[in-house]
Amino acid sequence: MTGSEPTPPPLLAADDLVRSHLSGSTLIPAVRGVSLRIDRGEFVAVTGPSGAGKTTLLHLLGGLLRPDEGELRLDGRRVDRLREAAWARLRRRRYGIVFQSGNLLSDFSVADNIELTAVLAGMSTRTARERRQELLADLGLAHKATAGPGELSGGERQRVALARALVNRPELLLADEPTGNLDSRSTRDVLALLSRYHEQGTTIVLVTHDARAASTADRVVSLFDGRIADDARVEEPPAAWRSATGIRDVIDFGG
Amino acid sequence: MRHQLLALLARQPAYGYQLKQGLEQTFGAAYPQPNIGQIYVTLSRLEKSGLIRGTEVTQEGKPDKKVYEITEKGTEELAGWFEAPTEGPRVRDEFFMKLILAEDTDLADRLTLINNQRRHCINMMRGLNKLAATERGNRTSLLLIEGAVLHLQADLDWLERCQEELI
Amino acid sequence: MRALLRWIRADLRSHRLHALLIVLATGGTAAALLLAGSLLGAAADPWQREFRAAGSPDVRIDLRPSAAAAGGSDEPSAELLAREPGVVAVSPPQHTAETTLVGRRPDGAPTAGGTDRTTLVLRADTPGAARPLLRSGAWLDPADVHGIVLEQSAADAVWAHPGDRLTVLDSHGAPVELRVLGIADSPDQLPSQAAGYDLGWTLPATLDLVQPDPAARGLTLGLHLAHPSDAAYTAQRVVSVLGPERVSRITTWLDARAARQQDNRLAGLLLGLSGLAALLAAALAVAGTAGARIKARTGDIALLKAIGFTAAQVAWMFITEQLLLAVTGVLLGAGGAAIAARAVPAPGGGTDALHQLVPGGTAATGAVMAAALVAIGAAAALPALRAARVAPVPPTDGTRPPAMAARPVRLGLVRRLPPTLVLGLGGVLRRRSGLAGSAVRLTVPVVAATLALSTWSTLDAVTRPDGGVTVPSVTARRTTPAPSGGDAQLTGALAADPAVRGVYPGSEIQALAPGQSATLTLRAVGTTDAPYPFSVVEGRAIRATDEAVAGQGALDLLGARVGQWVRITTGGTPRILHIVGRDLEPEHGGRVLSTGFDTLDRPGDPTGPDFWQLALCPGHDPAEVQRDLPTRAGLTGQVELRLPTGPVTRPGALRASVVGLLLLLALIGLVDLLTMAAAGFHERRRDIGLLRAIGLTPGQSAVVLAVRGTAIALAAVAVGSAVGIPLVRRLIDRQGHLGGIGAGIARAPSAWTFLAMAATCATVAAVLCALPVLRVPPPTRGPDGAGR
């Protein structure tokens, strides 16, 4: 395991999280003892095959699920046993969560979706509107402010969802397959936004299948069958790679 | 074929013919059948490089057979092979080789192999990302890069499958 | 077929609550309809029960004195009638004698006060003859030949109580004193005003006392029929068999019932309508539940179709399921009603068999149940037809969220509210049409409840002796003969009492309508200078002599309208009155003409008032005044006070019906609200997960959902009241018009009642909507089910 510095304490520290799901009458283990340390400002990608427990892990980190066993600490403070209401307040101020789908309230326009989140987090109506305009402009969606979620394409919806999650400048962004079902262009835009916020200091945990997305992270955690199989920093490819032969080696996919 | 033979010999010393059988058994019908002549040629090369050592064994009423065993240099070479990330056009084949052969040797552990390969792929992906960024205006390049990206993705997915099946 | 049953069984098992709700709603409605019918038929008017209990004859024949019948019972007539087709039995003939009632002396009073001269028919109590039902006092004493048991309406007319002494004139004109031993009610007897005479039962020996000549005595016979519905036909035959010169009067049980039931139609129609409205409401509620459930299962239905079920089979599945539930409900409801009817003998049909549950018998009961079944089954089946049309493509998850095609809501000013409310209202504003459907479903029980509540408040107003519709009053009568000084001292003492607003002299005379066919009451109260405050609702009050205000019953009887002149005959003297207004008249079925006392200026009219009508100051309870005034005014023993009568004989049972109906409507309303809450929760399920992630506490999420429920409930109550009140007013007034009291008695429930109803509905709706969010542990995000 890498990344745990003696000081300061990690933003998110998970110890031996265990969580199972009840399916009918059988108990299916989803996460079986995952320990993780995520520092402030880190960008962590979580990969693994379907059923490995990635989404469950993400939900545990966001307090959407309570672990059956184990501890979760946010900034050193234990949060895994918090009540719903306390978690809600925590999420309001410090988290931004993007789901794989269903990220937008169907009854409200794009602008209202983003602004309501901001107002809930405690911003004034005016600040909320400004933030919304700023974010939509960043994403190139300013012209869709009054549209309803049904009028947007998949990619546009995910971008708006990101905007919604980022409007309150969260310390921690949890994103579950934000680029799933997106074309490469939208994927690129989403990843670019994530990188930008990462540079500004947001800690990001990204669950993804997409290697390209994973490779933009600082660190890749591989889950397999509810446990961590690998946890490694992403590094630059070896210097030799940059040479002409190196590139050709990769790009020549004759075999 | 060199490293396959080295790996088989790392298990235990063997005759050339036994090695042929070993290859067939390990890889099964999906793998192109090794030619005994090719095997002997590879064996003599390996011997010349000092990676294996051959010893004559006399037999009653039969021509002499040579039994081969791996040398320390050969073991080192093998370990290095396992550890090095697999690259090049026939990544899948070679990596698969390592994965299968690792089982019987103490030199490598399957999970580590997979993890290492995955890390490598991801790092490669990062390189491709950076490349794509610099080649922004060049559509042909971008297309090539995209092709590489897709293949890398496919490799990573396959790695996951290997992990599911073999671990 | 087997697959269908298996599917139904599995489906019911997984949706127990919904099945239970449908069964409850159906059963409750069926039970309520049956019980209401029974209650109204028997309880609101116990006449039917009493008729049976008293063994009263279906046809009663009064025969004139016949010279041929010289003593003993008139065998030939009785035998003749017994042979008539359809006659099961002839009750033993009873002799009657006519006398004139001239005076009444209350027990303890020194001298008798005069009464109107009315005909008092004495009927001899013959063994075997039907005995009336004793209401107070005791029956005849064989030792007391001067004893008489008065009929109820006669006793009311002359203010008699057990212990009073009546002075009657015998055939020679000599006064005979009879003592009232008891007061009884004979269900087959018309009230004295309708019959034209007062009735009393005496010993046969008493008849000898007042009418020594047997030939001058009349005879009364009763016929029991095999088919009571043939009574009118039998009556005609009797008259032709016996000869019209012999028959002085013939009445059937139908006449008796009509004369008495007049007063109960008011409430009967209303409750019947409420019952129908309840049925409609139940049907809608069931439709709503079924519809909501089907909407939630479109995925399953699509799958069924993809598997290979045809649209028709899918529709049949649902229809069969709903019918099964409805049949179960109706059977349970009918069974429950039967048990309830048996267990509660007094207000119900007594120990009657099940077929007596609804007046009209088995056919009507079956019809009611069938109607309930059809209505509710059809209502539940309609959504099933919609289910059949669902496309066979199961919805894919992830790509396109459902129901997102429409434009988003424009929030406008709503945005300024706290975010929780905005989220709640946004959903409401967006799906207005869907919510309208839920609101409409809830409106029907609200309208029905308004109807029931208005019935209650109108009943309240009409039956309140302190005069909800009329001015609170008591009637005062002298018990001692007037002193030589006149009545001034008495009236002065009465007027001086703080509870009394005005003292008005009055007299009531029987009047005949033109054509001598019907009687009405001419009530002369107050003078032109000091007119009595009648509750005039049409036209104007009386200002001169010979002007009168009429009750609706009188207008109907005379065939007159306000503003016309009418001619009536009182005591043989014709009189012409100008009807200047219509007032609300609860007494005598509205067949009353009210005029000033000074209108009575013809020869033969009473010179002095028979009673004084005391109008009370508002807020004074007439019952209390009746008790305390004599003592207060120092007039103990000199005056007798009486309360005015109301039209509805048994308001208690009717109130019970109203309460029962309200309970049923509450149940139906609850079903509606549950459906709405469940549908709302299901609709918003996705959003609730997201809201949780955004940072809404469970309490806030509950508020978001509750806003929807509250909005619907309030809308329903508002619309229901707005529709219900005018409707009710028209219905009640119309019924009052028909019943003779007159239109204008409608009383809507107070504003507080509506506020309470609105508050209750809103609270229940809010709680039901909020409950699923608060109770169910937070679901894992993603109905898409990805990566659990």
UniProtKB/TrEMBL annotation, chain A:
A Gene Ontology molecular function term of the record: ATP binding
Coiled coil segments of this chain: none
Keywords of the record: ATP-binding, Nucleotide-binding, Transport
Gene3D superfamilies: P-loop containing nucleotide triphosphate hydrolases
The keyword Nucleotide-binding is assigned to this record: yes
Limits of the ABC transporter domain: 12-250
Source taxon at top rank: Bacteria
Protein name per its UniProtKB record: ABC transport system ATP-binding protein
Organism encoding this protein: Kitasatospora paracochleata
From TrEMBL, chain B:
Stored InterPro entries: Tscrpt_reg_PadR_C, Tscrpt_reg_PadR_N, WH-like_DNA-bd_sf, WH_DNA-bd_sf
Keyword annotations of the record: DNA-binding
One term of GO molecular function: DNA binding
Record-annotated Transcription regulator PadR N-terminal domain positions: 5-79
Tagged with keyword DNA-binding: yes
Transferase keyword on record: no
Protein name listed in UniProt: DNA-binding PadR family transcriptional regulator
Organism: Kitasatospora paracochleata
From TrEMBL, chain C:
UniProt KW Cell membrane keyword: yes
Lineage: superkingdom: Bacteria
Topology of this chain in the membrane: Multi-pass membrane protein
Protein name in the entry: ABC transport system permease protein
Bilayer-spanning residue ranges: 266-287, 323-344, 364-385, 658-682, 702-728, 749-774
UniProt KW keywords: Cell membrane, Membrane, Transmembrane, Transmembrane helix
Coiled coil: none
Record-linked InterPro entries: ABC3_permease_C (IPR003838), Macrolide_Exporter_MacB (IPR050250)
